[in-house]
């Protein structure tokens, strides 16, 4: 076993320090927000934010639990994420599997069109006009269909399908399986790490939907959680009703910290269960283009 030189040790120390700084840059604001959400409103008004509140309280969380606007926005976000992710994965997998077949006519042209959309976009106004013409304004379909397939994700999934041994499909065809049965019973079970990885990618994108919701949704009762959170944190309370409760009480600093934490919590809760697939899935399909 070779010994590390002073240069190698210095390089490793530098890497550790950089990673530690990045970890602190992420952890410190999160811990500050989490601890401040349990502080009293009076303490936060005096100190701004605290790492260790003098009086721990669940006042902010009880406030949000009884707030119909927050519950509605949270429910909307769950619906948008679950349905949107299902649509994303279904269409992405079907398209990727079809384009991964070498005997499909015109797949080169379709692959080029997919790649073209990664380089050039129709623009916000033309897209809005199309959505409006289809009658999707004030409908969640305007959120689900506009980004139904993310080209980059689809290309990686297609590349992974191309790396699978062709003998898997040939043996299934000999047994009388059709293409859909091959996909469902042969291809998808061996692609679980890749599927979990891109399900997480799509879920995060849907959960964080903000700009398109503001653009296509006019009814405030349909707003997802990110729009609600933005109005609570940034917008002048005198300008928007969502910044004030039905009883006339404004959102206090503690409530704002609690809203931020509850917004991030679902994805933080889901990630540990997907972590064992995530690292492996990140490498799949990234070699063959």
From TrEMBL:
Question: What's a Pfam family in this record?
Answer: BPD_transp_1
Transmembrane stretches in the record are 73-97, 109-129, 141-161, 182-205, 254-274
Question: From which organism does this entry originate?
Answer: Cohnella thailandensis
The Swiss-Prot or TrEMBL record describes its family as follows: Belongs to the binding-protein-dependent transport system permease family.
Topologically, how does it sit relative to the membrane? Multi-pass membrane protein
Which example biological process does GO assign this protein? Answer: transmembrane transport
Q: What is this protein called?
A: Carbohydrate ABC transporter permease
Q: Does the keyword Transmembrane apply?
A: yes
